[in-house]
Every structure is written in structure tokens, then in C-alpha cells.
Q: What sequence folds into this?
């Protein structure tokens, strides 16, 4: 009996200690102990100004898959309004068409990633010649694509969260691929030039004005595929005219500092994270972990751990960025984001905002790769300019011309890699998921 009594006393003692600790953890995480937002974070969360609806490609892209008889922009506006009215109830179905009217032709288009493969337009061009896709719906969608890329503004709404549904970029990119593949057959150079110019102007606009990281990476991928299409066209039609090569060169200007700097997208991601935190913090009933959660402290920490560093990295010059991501200490890379340790329950350093620390520990990602991808794209523009300069050069002089060219490896300032057997120009991408290569 004495042993049983002792066991009970020990059990009650452990329970009492546990309850006291639990009370302390919950008490220090009530809202009155939340931090004030840091001034920098307050500035990041200022409302945005939307352009006119009819000029905003954001609505047109959302309405891209509208039924044949419906207006694309008006449909996009209606879908977004429906989302805004229902987002708190997590009813996102209103952003998806009831029926995919484009599934037939989309299934016929084989996937090809221009960042990894240099002949995507030629492959699709051959596919369309072998098995033409005859569809009134596809013709309508291609007309809509041309309408989208004629727009000069892009601005997302201000109340997106990290869990919001995504625009139909997949459909838009398939239409782009078809448009480029068809352009390879155009014998009229001025017509081809106009098509590529319109395409590049739009995607550079999206690179500059796109809000989210997804917007900017879609723009990078699209410009990349435009470059390969120009390369494929020049090769297929044996473009050697100095005038025509000079015209094409006007499309290949280096990216501006503003286009290279994607820091604004990380600020947008923080704004989206803020909206997510608001709904997350208010959902007390379904997530007991929220009792241990301080939204403002979490947002301040997110800004310090991620946004500040990414904005600074994005603003660096090509060479400064290159040196930063290669910096080592004791043989290990310093840059850029170490995986955050999981907070330990009841640890003195973890009890305040335990839920926020746990959320942040699962939020890290190798964001510097996306910054690298933009610098790689600038290198691809240089590669394409070099190819154009070689078009009218005798083959015996290619090597010497490449060695003397001002268009050099963007990271080590050495001549571009020339593979005489494969007839390719290239350099080593910083983003290892890409292939920086142009076929001669």
C-alpha cells in the first residue's frame, strides 16, 4: 500500500509540474504579450494600388479558360470577386471552371521545358505537322493568348495568401508553346520578328511587374523559351542578313537592374504569409497549437529570417551574388538559408511563440536558386547575341571569334564554352536545374 501511495504522489507531482508548465506556456502566448510589428514590416504591408481592370493581364489570365461565349476579362474579374467573397470559408471552387473545355487539345501537347531542352519549339512544330490539332476552341484560345500578351499591366489583388489557388499558368504556357511552334514555319521575317517582339515585351513586363515569385519564374521560363525559338528560327531559315540579324539583336538587350531584381516578389510572399497568419491565428478551435502562437512576433521573425536576406540578395550585382553564394566557412557553404531547428516543447527558448517557431521551422527553402535563375537568363541573352554574331562567320573562324567576343561567361569572364562536335555554345548555370546552352 505504501508503494502504491508513493506512486500516486509521484504521479500527482509530475502532473502538477506538467500543468504548471502548460499554464506558463499558454499564459506567455496570450495576445497581450504579442510583439508590435517592426516598422519595416508595417511598411511592407501597405495596401497596393490596382491598375484599370481592362489593362490588367491578371484578370485576363484568370478568365483565360472561360466558356467560348464569355468575355475573358469580365470572367476573370467575376472569378476573383467570388474568391474574395468566399475565401474565409475556404470555398475556392469558384476559381475553377465547372468543366475543362480545353482538356482535349492540352492533352495532345507533349511537355518540354526550355530551361532544360533547347529545341522545344522544333519538337512541337514537328508534332503539329505530323498530327495537326484541329479545334475551333484552340483557335479561340490562341486568339485569347494574343490578347493577353498585348496587355501592358499586371497587378494581383492584395488579399492573396500562401494557400490561395493559382492562376491557370499551365494553360497559358501551352498556348505560348503552340504560338512559338507555329511561328517557326513563318517565312516572312518581319512577321516572325513582330510575333517574338510582342511575346518578349509581355514576358519582360511580367518579370518586372509580376508580384509573386511564381509570376516572375513563369516570366523567366517564357523568355528562355523565346530565346530558343529565335535560335531555332535562325538555324532553320539560315538567317545571315546583317539587317535581319541586327533586328533580332534589338530583342536581346541585357536585363535591366530592375528586371534582375526579384526582391519585390519576396515582399509579396511576406504579404501573402501575413494574410495566412491572420486566418491561421483566428482558427483557435481546429488547431490547439494556435494557443501557443503570436502572429506579429512570427511575422517579424519571418521578415528577419527570410525577407530581409532575400531582398538584399536580389539587389546584388551578378558578381556580388556569385561570390556570396560561393562563400565558405570551414569548408561549408555559408549562404544562404540553414534549416531552422524544430523548437522543443517546454524549452525556455521555445515557450514564447512556440507555434510560430514551429511554423517557421517548416518554411525554409532554397530561394537563392530563383535569384540565380534570373542571372542565368541574362547569360542566355548573351549567348544568343553571340550566336547572332557568328551567323555570317565562316566556320573556320568560329573558335577565334568566340575567344575574342565581348559576350563571355557571365560568372568567370572566360569565353563561352564552344563544343565543336555538338555545335553548341554554353556556360555553367548557377541554378543547377537549368541547362545554359544554345545550339549553333
A:
Amino acid at each position: 500500500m505504501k508503494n502504491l501511495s508513493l506512486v500516486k504522489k509521484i504521479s500527482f507531482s509530475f502532473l502538477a509540474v506538467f500543468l504548471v508548465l502548460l499554464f506558463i506556456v499558454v499564459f506567455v502566448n496570450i495576445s497581450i504579450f504579442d510583439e508590435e510589428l517592426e516598422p519595416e514590416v508595417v511598411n511592407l504591408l501597405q495596401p497596393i494600388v490596382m491598375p484599370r481592370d481592362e489593362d490588367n493581364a491578371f484578370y485576363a489570365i484568370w478568365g483565360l479558360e472561360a466558356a467560348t461565349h464569355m468575355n475573358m476579362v469580365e470572367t476573370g474579374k467575376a472569378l476573383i470577386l467570388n474568391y474574395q467573397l468566399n475565401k474565409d470559408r475556404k470555398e475556392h471552387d469558384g476559381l475553377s471552371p465547372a468543366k475543362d473545355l480545353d482538356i482535349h487539345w492540352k492533352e495532345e501537347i507533349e511537355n518540354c521545358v526550355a530551361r532544360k531542352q533547347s529545341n522545344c519549339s522544333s519538337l512541337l512544330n514537328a508534332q503539329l505537322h505530323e498530327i495537326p490539332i484541329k479545334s475551333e476552341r484552340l483557335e479561340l484560345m490562341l486568339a485569347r493568348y494574343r490578347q493577353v500578351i498585348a496587355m501592358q499591366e499586371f497587378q494581383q489583388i492584395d488579399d492573396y495568401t500562401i494557400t490561395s489557388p493559382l492562376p491557370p499558368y499551365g494553360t497559358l504556357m501551352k498556348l505560348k508553346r503552340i504560338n512559338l511552334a507555329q511561328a517557326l514555319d513563318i517565312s516572312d521575317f518581319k512577321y516572325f520578328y513582330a510575333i517574338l517582339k510582342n511575346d518578349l515585351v509581355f514576358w519582360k513586363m511580367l518579370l518586372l511587374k509580376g508580384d509573386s515569385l511564381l509570376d516572375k519564374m513563369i516570366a523567366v521560363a517564357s523568355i528562355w523559351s523565346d530565346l530558343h525559338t529565335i535560335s531555332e528560327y535562325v538555324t532553320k531559315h539560315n538567317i545571315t542578313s546583317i539587317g535581319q540579324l541586327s533586328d533580332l539583336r534589338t530583342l536581346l538587350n541585357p536585363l535591366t537592374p530592375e528586371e534582375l531584381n526579384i526582391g519585390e516578389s519576396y515582399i509579396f510572399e511576406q504579404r501573402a504569409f501575413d494574410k495566412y497568419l491572420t486566418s491561421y491565428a483566428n482558427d483557435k478551435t481546429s488547431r490547439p497549437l494556435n494557443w501557443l502562437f503570436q502572429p506579429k512576433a512570427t511575422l517579424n521573425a519571418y521578415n528577419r529570417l527570410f525577407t530581409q536576406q532575400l531582398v538584399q540578395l536580389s539587389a546584388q550585382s551578378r558578381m556580388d551574388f556569385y561570390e556570396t553564394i560561393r562563400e565558405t566557412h570551414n569548408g561549408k557553404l555559408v549562404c544562404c538559408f540553414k534549416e531552422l531547428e524544430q523548437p522543443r516543447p517546454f524549452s525556455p527558448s521555445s515557450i514564447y511563440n512556440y507555434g510560430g517557431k514551429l511554423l517557421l521551422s517548416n518554411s525554409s527553402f532554397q530561394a537563392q536558386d530563383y535569384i540565380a535563375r534570373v542571372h542565368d537568363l541574362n547569360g542566355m541573352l548573351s549567348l544568343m547575341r553571340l550566336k547572332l554574331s557568328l551567323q555570317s562567320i565562316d566556320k573556320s573562324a568560329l573558335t577565334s571569334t568566340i575567344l575574342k567576343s565581348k559576350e563571355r561567361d557571365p560568372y568567370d569572364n572566360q569565353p563561352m564554352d564552344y563544343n565543336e562536335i555538338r555545335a553548341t555554345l554554353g556556360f555553367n548555370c548557377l541554378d543547377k536545374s537549368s541547362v545554359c546552352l544554345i545550339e549553333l
User: Anything to note?
Assistant: The two ends are 91 Å apart (CA to CA).
